[in-house]
Amino acid sequence: MVLADYFFAPFFRRYFYYFDSYPIVIQIAILLTTIAVLATFSAYAVILYRRYAGNRHEKKLARINPDLDNYITENIILNEQLATGEPVNQIVLPMGIFEKSLYRRRWVQQATIDRIIHYRKNFGGEIGGLLKKLYIDLELDKVSFKRLKSVKWDKKVKALKELTAMDMSIADVNILPLTNSKNRELRSEARHAYIKLSKNEPFKFFDIVTEPLLMWDQLELFKIITTTKDISIPNFARWVTYSSNKSVVAFCLKLIVHYNQQQAIPAIEKLLDSKDHYLRENAINALGKLKAEDTENKLVSIYSNQPLTCQLEILKALGRMGTGNHLEFLRHEFLRSADFDVRKNAAKSIINHKADSASLLKELLDTATAENALILKHCMNPLIKY
Amino acid sequence: MNEVPAKNILIVEDDDIMLKVVERILKREGYGVEIARDGKEALQKVQDNKYALIITDLMMPYANGFEIISKVNGNAEKRTPVIILSSLGNEDSIMEGFKMGADDFLRKPVMVGELVIRVKRLIDQNK
């Protein structure tokens, strides 16, 4: 307020000689109103300028894009040498159009990169290879690599997106440090790029991850890993055993389940002795989903020493394995436990045993209290899933 | 309903580049091609004309690809083969497309040779 008074009060004193005679509240109100009006006009000016700049850029693109589209359609998509089976690296693309000075301007180079990437997202196979050749022949890869060295994180993200879309190799020394960046978006994009571009060891960054993998990061990574073609899938037990990052271990457990890596079961079983409940809970969940029947007895034996979250996972795991060896244990938990979640999960696991538990289920339905009968009926409804 | 030539194909796609390129590829192969840039335009064309084949994207303004497939094969006397051309690659979308009556599913990025062969096969089957 002192600063505002310093800037605006002389103005008001000059044009409104009675400004000083106003009560302080009115003086403050006048100052605030003036600041608000100026801020509104500035915001409008910025919006108008951005719209004008955007519109100018669109017009420039409208001038350049038809030429690029014609070039790509004629020389790449409908390339006759490609149709005759000529290898992509032996096809010589005509470069005449790109010798114009216009194509040396930075914004035109960017427009060309964006256009090539757009085509590459839509067309694969040899056409994709020819688009990559055009990108390299025009030395646009150098533009992207130069941007990767920028100090601004958003430029690095853009460069990573371009290089990933064009399937360009990036040296580990340039990309690995970015997978651990403090900036969430840069970190996520670098991991994405590393998995897509590293053909031999796409998960090497798991070894150096110091920041936790947030749930959102895990979702993104899971999608990338499971949808990237030709990725070499390692045995994730390696990180379950050696990683000191809890979130990496939990994420690897999910990947082990997804890829049904039965060979990882001994490594997961060792996690049952971990002091961390979060890891034990995730390990029990993974063992259940992998139907690791050999671990069933151990799960039941540790049940009474576990916190509630781990107990619930053990009950679910017994239902997923469905061997029938511990139906009596499930029955006991259903009838004796005072906790609603324990009863609900025990009931669901009994029902998951299907034919093996038919007689037990009938007995429970006949003898259950009103509340237990309600739980059983709820769990028997195939539309209710949890 | 107008009976259009036996080799006429309708391409429904909201990406202008993809639309123009696929149109050129199919014209080069000797097919007659009509285009629609959104679901609404496609539904109008499907109502007014009969096509030998429809190639449709899934995510589009006004009406999506599923609605178009359902309209095409909902009450027609003779069904029209449909190829879905989409970047959606999850199992649910693919299954939903086939349940609705699609004949084929091509995921972007598409290989031109594969597209041409699949178009030819479906048109020949339905002659």
Provide a descriptive summary of the structure in words.
The complex is a heterodimer of chains A (386) and B (127). Chain A has 386 residues and is mainly α. Chain A has a domain at 1-138. Chain A is built from 20 helices and no strands. By secondary structure, chain B is an alpha/beta fold. Chain B has one domain (2-125): Rossmann fold, CATH 3.40.50.2300. Chain B is 45% helix and 21% strand. Chain B is built from five helices and seven strands. Chain B is globular. The mean pLDDT of chain B is 87. The interface between A and B is medium-sized, with 16 and 17 residues.
Q: What descriptors fit this protein?
A:
heterodimer, A: 386 residues, flat, B: 127 residues, alpha/beta, five-stranded parallel sheet, 7 strands, transmembrane (chain A)
Find the structural class of chain B using helix and strand composition.
Answer: alpha/beta
How far is it from the N-terminal to the C-terminal residue of chain A, by CA? Answer: 57 Å
CATH class (first level) name of chain B:
Alpha Beta
Can you write the helix and strand succession of chain A as a string? HHHHHHHHHHHHHHHHHHHH
SSE series of chain B: EEHEHEEHEHEH
Average predicted confidence as pLDDT of chain B: 87
Pfam family, one (chain A): HEAT_2
Organism (chain A): Deminuibacter soli
InterPro entries (chain A): ARM-like, ARM-type_fold
Keywords (chain A): Membrane, Transmembrane, Transmembrane helix
